[in-house]
Design a protein that fits this description.
This protein is mostly helical and 92 residues long. The chain has one domain. It has a 3-stranded antiparallel β-sheet, with no helix packed on it. Strand 2 and strand 3 form a beta hairpin. It is elongated, with a radius of gyration of 19 Å.
């Protein structure tokens, strides 16, 4: 899947290498694996070869890891909600 420039519509775009950014707080709270998943879910940056416009675009890798990331967040929030519900309304 070729990335097209949103400015000129050209397809001669190259990816600008960025270091994998993993927030320290995420590593401390969620572990290294979830930090890497978060870093891979970010949109990579591209530069158009024709007009030199720089932009972010979703790739297949970032889309897959975004789905995994949002599933993780949903599971964490669901677990937190269940824990609060169990605390407020004990069954025993």
């Amino acid at each position: 899947m070729a990335v097209q420039c949103p400015s000129c519509g050209g397809s001669s775009c190259e990816k600008i290498e960025q270091p994998l950014h993993i927030p320290l707080l995420l590593i401390l709270l969620g572990g290294f694996i979830w930090g890497v998943i978060y870093g891979l879910s970010r949109e990579p940056r591209f530069r158009c070869g024709a007009c030199e416009h720089r932009f972010f675009a979703r790739t297949l890798v970032s889309q897959v890891f975004s789905v995994i990331w949002y599933l993780f967040i949903t599971l964490v929030l669901t677990g937190f909600g269940y824990a609060v519900y169990s605390f407020l309304f004990p069954t025993g």
